[in-house]
Backbone:
């Protein structure tokens, strides 16, 4: 890219971020996990009746998920 016609042109940070974000949105990552160790990527229905030490829920609507019940 050093020899590209735009190599010395300055771009606003917002434009660079939008280009980067657009590139990431179109990428796919193949993931295969082990059910006995490491990171697990599961759908909500796949987690029924399973216990986990740590859970991270991504891209979920809070009004649809059940409330968190803690033991105590």
Residues:
């Amino acid at each position: 890219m050093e020899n590209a016609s735009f190599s010395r042109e300055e771009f606003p940070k917002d434009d660079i971020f939008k280009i980067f974000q657009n590139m990431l949105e179109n990428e796919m990552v193949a993931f295969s996990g082990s059910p006995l160790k490491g990171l697990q990527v599961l759908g909500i229905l796949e987690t029924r009746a399973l216990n986990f030490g740590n859970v991270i829920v991504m891209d979920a609507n809070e009004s649809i998920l059940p409330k968190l019940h803690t033991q105590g």
In short: The mean pLDDT is 78. The chain is about 20% helix and 0% strand.
